[in-house]
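Reopening this ticket.

The earlier resolution said the output was attached, but the attachment link was broken on my side. Pasting everything inline this time so it's all in one place.
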Amino acid sequence: MKTPELCEVDLRRRLIREQRDFYGRPNLNGIDYVEVSEDQYSLRIYFLGKAPKPISAKNIVITGGRRITGIQVVDIDVCRMSGKDLDDCLTVTVDKWGDFSDYTLRFVELDKRGYPTNRPMRGFDRRFAQIVFSFKVGCPSDLDCLAESACVPAPLPQPDINYLAKDYTSFRQIILDRLSLIMPDWRERHVPDIGIALVEVLAYSADYLSYYQDAVATEAYIDTARQRISIRRHARLVDYRMHEGCNARAWVFVETRGGQVTLKMSEVAFIAGLKNAATESAGVLMREGLRLLNPDPQKYQVFEPMGCEDLTLTEAHNIIPIYTWGDFDCCLPQGATSATLVDEYLKDPPSPDDGYDQDKSGKTQKQPVTPKYKSKQQQQHAEPKRKLNLRPGDVLIFEEVISPRTGEAADIDLTHRHPVLLTKVTQDKDDLTDQPVVEIEWATEDALPFPLCISTTGSAPDCEKLENVSIARGNIVLVDHGRTIGGKVIDDQDDEDVGTVPLQESLSECGNASCTPEVTIVPGRFRPGLKQGPLTFSEQV
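Inline output:
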């Protein structure tokens, strides 16, 4: 099985070689490397130990290739070494050689009819049951064979350039700043100086041209218009009514304690920057308490959960380590859409079948109950429950928690946070260490936009081994910015009264004393204002 983790320190090979059963035989095997002959019709496969005895040509499958595909194994020859410390090899003869692209050689199981399946061959470690090779590895090439590192360092910050300069003063300052870089010896700033005079002439010309650009050319096109009213008018020409936009949304991680907690979306709200004894926990308020507290929107930002369905939070989802299969110096590359998470087994309480019972007070006491023994086969298939309860549709956030250089939480890169929507969750187990794991996948639209470091070696002189540099977090809630006032969504407050349009009377003279003047009622100037603000516009999910 191909895994997305890329590790520079390969420790799993040594663990497989050292793993032994009760009789001193190796538990697992794997492919160490592959050599291609000069005629490209023969492949020599070296194992991580001794070659398996029940092996045939059908157990070997070669896939891949662009122009040349469907390569079949014709014959095999096992090279068994007499020494215990010497590894066996296998010579494989194929019917045709491949092209310059990469191929994958796998050892798989056979079904009842003798056809290859997708399952790794029994006795092979899943990390080393396949290997990627090329038939043209011995051909001369002018390409650099150095593999590109997946953990690319972050680019250096670029100098800030002010593209918002649109008036005389800002143009003059930009020109002077540029001259200070290219002409550091020129420090004259007096007005009569010829250099200052030229700078001011250029700033005046730029300001003059900028006026026409903003007043005419900028607002004439949708791509360059800066005012919202201009965009609305352009959209109205094609019979499209532009709405008022949408408020900001964010993913919020809720840390919980005490097993599982049910969070009622219709009764809670999140507030940033508030530290008050009225808060039930850091940043979380009941909406009734939020109404009574009535925080100042200029100082505190309120976020409300989206959706009305209750969310079940689990303490085990607060911090979920990423599994590296025993290797070190690993990272998830940019564009990854799958990962392996560390799981744990739950310790079940004693049941009545084990000779325990509970009295009326709830205390567990030893009872003389005859235990029910299970067969060895039933004990192997009865796997205990696990702590992680991830499902497709859940949202996880991959986050860097310590710096990969210093190992300090204060030096982390805050941009190394990325949410993903799970599309597939599979419970699995490492056969080498019996560690329970969870295989997760997400869509390509949520692929990692940056390489995520998992374990690394710190900077000198300590060179400390840093593990769990990045982790996954569950218990994620989607919230939007703003507080709903009025109606039955948040509280029972009445809608805010904005007043009525004033009336202004207009008398018309008829020119005759006996004529009754005509009275025309026109609306007055009406500018309503909200008592609570500012205002934001919300949209459904």
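Reporter confirms the inline version is readable. The first strand starts at residue 6 and ends at 9. Helices lie at 12-18, 168-182, 194-218, 228-236, 287-293, 376-381.
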